[in-house]
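Regression test case RT-17, inverse folding.

Input:
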């Protein structure tokens, strides 16, 4: 995230999911945020910056950057939590700005910060209505752990 970001830099969907406090990594066209409601350990929101409410409304540059961002997400989450599968859900029913819910999936309960996290939907669809109880302190630990595993960008 740039040092000069203002609340206007974040669309309504990003703000709903806690931006700027929940931003793990900011790119030119995308931001990766921790999903405050941890359906599974390391659940994220991948939000587009462009003012688009349809996936096809994003610029070609946004689609190009999406490739790098998803690679970084998968490397970081694999290193941080050793997920079994990963789901990208683009629902956009309530929050219309282009975004994905990134849900790491786990066949077995996972331990982090002296807490057990379960994937109640495994092996079927993720159960977004059943969340693992966390607080701001645990979410901050999750964010910092993911950030510590984030790959370096090729500059």
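Golden output:
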């Amino acid at each position: 995230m740039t040092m000069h970001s203002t609340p206007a830099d974040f669309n309504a969907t990003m703000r709903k999911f806690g931006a700027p406090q929940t931003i793990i990594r900011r790119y030119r066209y995308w931001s990766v945020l921790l999903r405050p409601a941890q359906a599974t350990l390391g659940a994220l929101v991948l939000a587009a910056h462009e003012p688009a409410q349809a996936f096809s409304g994003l610029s070609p540059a946004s689609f190009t950057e999406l490739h790098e961002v998803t690679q970084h997400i998968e490397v970081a989450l694999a290193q941080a939590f050793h997920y079994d599968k990963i789901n990208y859900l683009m629902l956009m029913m309530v929050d219309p700005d282009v975004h994905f819910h990134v849900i790491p999936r786990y066949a077995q309960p996972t331990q982090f910060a002296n807490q057990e996290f379960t994937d109640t939907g495994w092996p079927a669809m993720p159960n977004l209505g059943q969340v693992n109880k966390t607080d701001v302190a645990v979410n901050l630990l999750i964010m910092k752990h993911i950030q510590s595993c984030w790959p370096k960008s090729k500059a």
